[in-house]
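Ticket 4471: requesting a sanity check on a complex prediction with zinc ion. Repro inputs:
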Amino acid sequence: MSGSFRIGRILGIDINIHLSWLIVLVLLTFSLANGYFPTAYPGHTNVTYVVLGFVSTILLFVSVLLHELAHSLVARARGIPVHAIVLFVFGGVSNIEQEPQTPGVEFSMAFVGPLVSFLIGALCYVLLFLIRGNHSFLVSVLSYLAFTNIILGVFNLIPGFPLDGGRVLHSIIWKITGSVQTAMNAATIVGQSFAYLFILFGILQFFYGNIVVGLFIVFTGWFLLSAAQSASTQSILETAFAGVLVGQVMTTSPVTTPANISLQKLVDEYFLPQGLRSAFVVQGDQLAGLITLSDIRHTPREQWGQTPVGLAMIPVERLHTVTAQQNLKDVLTLMTGQDVNQLPVVEDGKLVGVLTRDAILRSLEVRRSLGLSQNGKA
Ligand SMILES: [Zn+2]
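Returned C-alpha cells:
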C-alpha cells in the first residue's frame, strides 16, 4: 500500500505503518492528555498527561496489531500466505492474498480478530480487579484499554465489508446456501444498509450539536459504503474472470521503440503522430523498459537530440511484468494494489503483449453480454 513504511517483522510477516496512523498517534495522544486523563487521574502536570496519552495510544496500537496478527496467523495455519500487515487510521489491514476456500476457514479467520480484542479487554478488566483501585494512573490506563478494545471488537463485528463482521456474515450465508455469490450479494446489501444507518445517525448527531462526533460517524459510514461497493466490484471481477488467463485478454503487438534512438526522434516519429502517452522499449527482441511522457519531460528539451531512449526510460527491472499463463484474477489484485494501468506480458524476456485496464474492461463487457460470466466458463 502506498504511503506506508515498514517498522519490523513478526513471525515472517512484515509490519507496516500507514502515514495516516502517525497523525492519529499525535491527535489521540493530545486528546487523551487534554480530555480523558485529567478527569480519570486528576491533580497532575500536563507532561504526565502527555506521557500517559502517548503510552496509552501505543498500547492501543499494540492491541490493534495483535488483532491483525490473529487474522494473519489463522490464515497462515489454514494454508493461506500472508506477507504483510498495514496499520492505518481505521485500524489494520492484513494483506491476505487469497480468498478462503471454505466457509469454515473464512469464519475462523474473520472471527479470531474481534475475539482477540475482547480477550485483551477482558484481561484489562481482570488486572483492574486484581489491583483493586491502587496505582490510580495504572487504573486510568487499563480502563482506557479495556474500553477501547471492547469497542474495537464490537465495531469490527458490524456485519459489513471489509469489517470482520461482514466476513463472518458472508461465511455463514455461504455455509447455508452453498453459493459464494449469493453470500457476497447478501453481505454487500447488509453492509450498505449499516453504512446508510451510520450516515443518517451521524447527520442527526450533527444537528443535535455533536458536530465532531457527528462528522466522525458520517465519515465512518461513508468509508463503510465505499468499502462495500469496492468489495462487490472486486467480487464481480473475480467471478467474471475465474479461469481466464492473461494471454486471453492481453493486446498483442503493442507499440515498441528501439532503445538507441534519440528522444527527439521518439517524439517526432512515435509519440506525436500516434498520440501515444507511453511505449515499451526493446533491445533486439528483449524488453528493456518503458518510456512515458513524464520521462521525456524530465529531460531538458535542448538535450532531446542527444539523449537515447534507453537512458531516459524506466528500466525493465523496475517494471512489474506478467506472463500469458498467469490467472487474470491474480493479476487484477496486483494492478489494483499497485495502482498500475498497464502491465507488459513477457515470455523469456520477450515482450509478447500488454495487459491494460481498458482491455480488461472491454473483455468484461463482452463476457457479461454473452453471459459468460458465471462459474468460470470462459
Ligand atoms: Zn479484524
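Notes from triage: Residues 374-378 have pLDDT under 50 and may be disordered. Leaving this open until the requester confirms.
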